[in-house]
Amino acid sequence: MIEIIIGTSRPGAYSRKVGTMVFEIYKALGIEVGLIDLKDVPLEAFSGDSINARPLPIQSFADRILKADGVHFVTPEYNGGVPGVLKFFIDLLPFPEAFQNRCFAITSVSAGMWAGIRAAGHLEDVVTYKEGIIFNQKVMIGGVVSLFDEKDNFTGEKEKERLEKQIKGFGEFVKKIRSI
């Protein structure tokens, strides 16, 4: 089982559009997949008190991560890193259980030409610090705004091919790692 995490709570986010497409690619490949969208996490879960005691709304998401063999982040880049809501969500997950010996894939999106490279690097640093296993085929999509038409259809064929390759490879990677 792979859980996809949409790394923002922003309405209309392109990372959500790409994340939904990633979800559909997993399903088309016959890989069991779930989708965690941070817009669905209640705002009270992100209060300062939640650092001391994991809030109940976070626990249901944490349980899903704990059951997953792999986690695929689809995140935008905000101000040179991952969105604060994603970092806080990660901080609320049980450590080390949610990360140690679990496989992680990273897809970043950005309106700019650098394709979220800093967000991908930031996320990789956090996951490896928490003892997660990073799949080495990251996909970074720049100019994401121009890759959707007026009906929100994805038009980036090269990018879609890269995503399909990443997803297929991550599925195989997870099987190998989890069988060891």
Order of helices and strands: EHEHEHEHEEH
Q: How does CATH name the architecture?
A: 3-Layer(aba) Sandwich
Q: Would you count the extended β strands for me?
A: 6
User: What would you give as the CATH superfamily?
Assistant: Flavodoxin domain
Radius of gyration from the CA trace? 15 Å
Mean pLDDT: 91
Question: How far is the N terminus from the C terminus?
Answer: 16 Å
Mind describing the biggest β-sheet? 6 strands, parallel
Poorly predicted spans: none
Strand percentage = 15-25%
- CATH C-level class: Alpha Beta
Shape designation: globular
Secondary structure topology:
Elements: E1 2-6, H1 14-28, E2 33-37, H2 56-67, E3 70-76, H3 84-92, E4 103-109, H4 117-129, E5 133-134, E6 139-141, H5 157-179
Parallel strand pairs: 1-2, 1-3, 3-4, 4-5, 4-6
